[in-house]
Amino acid sequence: MNRIATVLTIAALVGVTAVSMFGAGFAAGHLSGAGGPLTFLVGGGTQPEAGGTPGDLAETFGPFWQAWDIVHREYAEQPVDDVALMRGAIRGMLQALGDPHTGYMTPEEMAIANTHLDGDFEGIGATVETDALTGYTRIVSPIAGSPAEAAGLLAGDLIIKINGEDIAGQDITTVVGKVRGPADSRVTLTIQREGAADLLEFTVTRARINIASVESRMLDGGLGYVKINSFGEKTGAELKEHLRDLLAQAPAGLILDLRGNPGGYLDTAIDVASQFIPDGVVMVERFGDGRERVYEARRGGLATELP
């Protein structure tokens, strides 16, 4: 389960009320490096090793390597960070596609993005992303029962300052590192909220966040309610446990709530959908070369007979 699904429409959940936007703008797409390593030249410049750039792309990549070499020779502040340049080039390449659902995350950013999938952490308890328009960090959703929720932070809030420091231009890894901290310590966030004339300030006491990926309860009218906060490693097993508890109460129907869900593992999402669909296609993954991969419902779903 190492594939991240950031866009999934569970349109086939016929009869189940689902309210959702699956995905939080995190990277979708798989990157694999096929080029060769770099050889450093006398004078600090670089060029691809023989065979590093395919022959039919040598002319296309010529300006890139010229620019790379110029930066290494003539940029005022030396030495430059080759890893930062490489990552910047990848970001720029993917941004040029013009697809808001395709992007690049560093290993550090990936670890942060997956925190809500894997376990506990100390902080304020909110899923975040980088706002493409402003460059600031935006709150996607406060985690239920978290200090962020208790303090009044809302989905869509932009974090402008942390403890009085303007974070303009800072990457999400740096921002999250400053927001997180030991349990019982405090952090002050200056927030820009849509519709508010002035910036808002919130002082939040950090805590150890225990992430529950599934919540459920019975509602008036005999309806069962299930909220899925993420598609994490344990979500499938947790959902089955919640469904068994609800089914024991003979609900007339189920409401599936996916609001604020930032996404997660594709395999888990298929498993979740299969709890409500007895058979048939759940999702079709279409590749740029025209190939398609079809994902069908898995047998044994617990709630396939309920509206």
Structure in a nutshell:
The protein has 307 residues and is of the alpha+beta class. The chain has helices at residues 58-74, 82-95, 107-113, 115-118, 147-151, 172-179, 235-247, 266-274, and strands at residues 4-5, 17-20, 38-40, 46-48, 121-123, 126-130, 137-142, 158-162, 165-166, 186-192, 200-205, 207-209, 214-219, 223-228, 253-258, 264-265, 281-286, 292-296. It contains eight helices and 18 strands.
Q: Could you list some keywords that capture this structure?
A:
26% strand, 2-enoyl-CoA Hydratase, Chain A, domain 1, 3 domains, Pdz3 Domain, six-stranded antiparallel β-sheet, 25% helix, alpha+beta, flat, 307 residues, single chain, 18 strands
CATH superfamily of the largest domain: 2-enoyl-CoA Hydratase, Chain A, domain 1
Query: What is the strand tally?
Result: 18
Rg over CA atoms: 23 Å
State the CATH topology of the largest domain. 2-enoyl-CoA Hydratase, Chain A, domain 1
Strand content: 25-35%
- What global shape is seen? flat
- The CATH architecture term of the largest domain is Alpha-Beta Complex
Major sheet: size, sense and barrel closure? 6 strands, antiparallel
For the record, the count of structural domains works out to 3
Question: Treating each run of at least 4 consecutive H or I residues as one helix, how many helices?
Answer: 8
CATH domain class name of the largest domain: Alpha Beta
Q: Which consecutive residue ranges, at least 5 long each, have pLDDT under 50?
A: 1-46
